[in-house]
Amino acid sequence: MGVIIQPEEIQSRGTVALARWLLGKVLVRSDASERRGYLICEVEAYDGARDLACHASKGRTPRTEVMYQTGGVWYVYLCYGVHEMLNLVTGPADYPAAILIRGLEGISGPGRLTKQLKIGRKLNGTKTEPASGLHLEDYGIKVPRKLIEAGPRVGVNYAGPVWAVKPWRFRIDPTKLPR
User: Fold this and answer.
1) CATH number of the domain residue 94 falls in
2) What pairs with residue 29 in β-bridges?
3) Domain of residue 17, residue span
4) Is pLDDT above 90 for 112?
5) C-alpha distances out from residue 128 to 80, 125, 143, Å
6) 9-20 pLDDT, tens per residue?
7) How many domains does the chain have?
């Protein structure tokens, strides 16, 4: 068992830097009968209302309201009417920023990971604490910067030529990590 990352540790940090920091941390899914941990291997940053790829760029709505909360809560939404998407809200109160969890060790793709971990919108707005059934832990795995691959975010061409190409998608190959 690693050190539980408290919601307060996720608040008021630069979202892009925090996205890189999440690589190598562990997403823990638990219930009364089981506890499973998964190494975070791929994430995407969405940084505020000015980021045209961010849901908050369209304004404050019932769907995006959770993004305006103080960081350290989950933002879970339905994408294309098919897949739940898991995001970690990061900004201070009233600054809508979040990180999409795109991949875990052994699970590639944000829709696949929510399906496999049985993550749904019931978690939307809950704190990243063990009591919610979904939290983060730090096992002390150091991810050298040279092992982090940065690239453009996926599926955001609608955001225009500036925002669609921001290199705010970060990935690691977990087999190359020092453990």
Assistant:
1) 3.10.300.10
2) 36, 134
3) 3-176
4) yes
5) 25, 9, 22
6) 888 668 999 999
7) 1
